[in-house]
Specification:
By secondary structure, the chain is of the alpha+beta class. It folds into 2 domains: about 190 residues, Ribosomal Protein S5, domain 2 (2-Layer Sandwich), CATH 3.30.230; about 130 residues, GHMP kinase, C-terminal domain (Alpha-Beta Plaits). The protein is globular, with a radius of gyration of 20 Å. The model has no long low-confidence stretch (mean pLDDT about 95).
C-alpha cells in the first residue's frame, strides 16, 4: 500500500521573542525533534495523534471542512489545517499525527510542536492531493494563525518549513544563517510546561511600557550580531537582550524568568556564560551559550541538580532540515 510520510522540525527562539511581535527581528533555530505525519488511503476517515491523544477518532470531510461525529472537535489543529487547504483529498485517508518527541514525562517541552505539526500535516495533505508542497509557507501560516486566533509572529512556522538557523522578521522577511563559528549551546528543560497563549493574552491587555521599545532595540542589535557570525558579538548582544527581556517581563508581569530561569540566568552570568528562556518563558526550555564545551557541560550538570533536564540537542544547521515528504510502499 502506498503511503506518504512527512515531517517538520521544532524550534527554539534564540533571541527576539516578544520583540518580534512589534516588528523587530528574531533568531530561531530548528531542533532535532520532528513532528511526523503518516498518510495512507483508507475506507473511512480517521486520525490518531501519538503524543497528544492516543485514541483513534473518526470524522468526515465536507467542502474541505471536518465534521466530527461527537460534535466538538478533539483536534482543533487538524480543523485549522483542513480549513486552510486549497485542495481536498478525493477519498478517505488514515492519518497519524505524531508529536511524541516533543514531550517528556507527559509534559510538552516548548519546542514548537503545534507549528511543526501544522507544517507537517499541511505539507503532507498538499503533497497527497497535488504531488507538490508548493505554497506550503502561506498555507501553514494561515492554518497556524487560525489555530492561535490570529496571534503569534509566525517564526515557529517559518523555522518548521525551512529548518536551519533563521533571521526572521514579520511577516515573511527570512534570511538563512550559518551557526556562528566557535559558539556552543546546551538546551535545558525546566520541567514546567508553559502557556504561550496565556502570556500573549496578558501582554495584549497591558498598557504599553517603554521596556517594549528597549526590547525591540536589543533584539535588533542581537540579530545583527547573529547575522555577522561573530561569536563574541553574539554572546555580548544576546546577554544584553537577556537584560532587556528581564525588564520587559517585570514591566508586564509576564514571569518569563519564572520556574528556575532567573536563577540559571544569574548563574550563567557569574560564570561568563549567557542563559535565557526560549520563547514565551515561565517554564518550558532555555538555552545556555558560550565558547567552552566543558564550561557548558558543568553548567548543565548544575542545572540538572536544580531540577532541569539536559535535552542534549544538536544544532547542526545542515542536518536539521525543514519540511520533508516521501512516498513509501508498505
Amino acid at each position: 500500500m502506498t503511503a506518504l510520510v512527512a515531517s517538520a522540525p521544532g524550534k527554539l527562539v534564540v533571541c527576539g521573542e516578544y520583540a518580534v511581535l512589534d516588528g523587530a527581528p528574531a533568531i530561531a533555530v530548528a531542533v532535532d525533534r520532528r513532528a511526523v505525519v503518516h498518510v495512507e488511503a483508507a475506507e473511512r476517515w480517521f486520525v490518531t495523534a501519538p503524543g497528544f491523544d492516543e485514541r483513534p477518532h473518526e470524522f468526515s470531510v465536507r467542502a474541505a471542512r471536518i465534521v466530527w461525529p461527537e460534535g466538538s472537535s478533539p483536534m482543533p489543529l487538524l480543523d485549522a489545517v483542513f480549513g486552510s487547504l486549497a485542495c481536498e483529498p478525493d477519498s478517505p485517508l488514515a492519518l497519524t499525527l505524531d508529536t511524541d518527541s516533543f514531550s517528556a514525562a507527559g509534559g510538552k517541552l516548548g519546542l514548537g510542536s503545534s507549528a511543526a505539526l501544522t507544517v507537517a500535516a499541511s505539507g503532507a495533505l498538499m503533497t497527497w492531493c497535488t504531488g507538490s508542497s508548493d505554497g506550503l509557507p502561506g498555507t501553514a501560516a494561515l492554518a497556524h494563525r487560525s489555530l492561535q486566533r490570529g496571534r503569534g509572529s509566525g517564526v515557529d512556522v517559518a523555522t518548521a518549513v525551512r529548518g536551519g538557523l533563521l533571521h526572521y522578521r514579520m511577516p515573511d522577511d527570512i534570511v538563512e544563517l550559518d551557526w556562528p563559528r566557535g559558539l556552543r549551546a546546551r538546551v535545558l528543560y525546566s520541567g514546567v510546561p508553559a502557556s504561550t497563549t496565556a502570556k500573549l493574552d496578558r501582554l495584549a491587555a497591558a498598557d504599553r511600557d517603554p521596556s517594549r521599545e528597549a526590547l525591540a532595540a536589543a533584539a535588533a542589535a542581537a540579530a545583527d550580531a547573529w547575522r555577522s557570525g561573530d561569536c563574541d558579538a553574539v554572546l555580548e548582544s544576546t546577554a544584553a537582550f537577556v537584560v532587556s527581556l528581564e525588564g520587559f517581563s517585570r514591566a508586564h508581569d509576564l514571569g518569563v524568568f519564572a520556574s528556575g530561569h532567573e536563577q540559571l540566568s544569574a548563574l550563567a552570568q557569574s560564570q561568563g556564560l549567557v542563559y535565557k528562556p526560549c520563547g514565551a518563558g515561565g517554564g518550558d526550555a532555555g538555552m545556555v551559550l558560550g565558547r567552552d564545551p566543558a564550561a557548558l557541560a558543568a553548567f548543565a550538570e548544575a542545572a540538572t541538580r536544580d531540577g532541569f533536564r539536559d535535552l542534549s540537542m544538536s544544532f547542526d544547521t545542515t542536518s536539521n532540515t525543514g519540511f520533508t515528504a516521501a512516498w513509501t510502499q508498505d
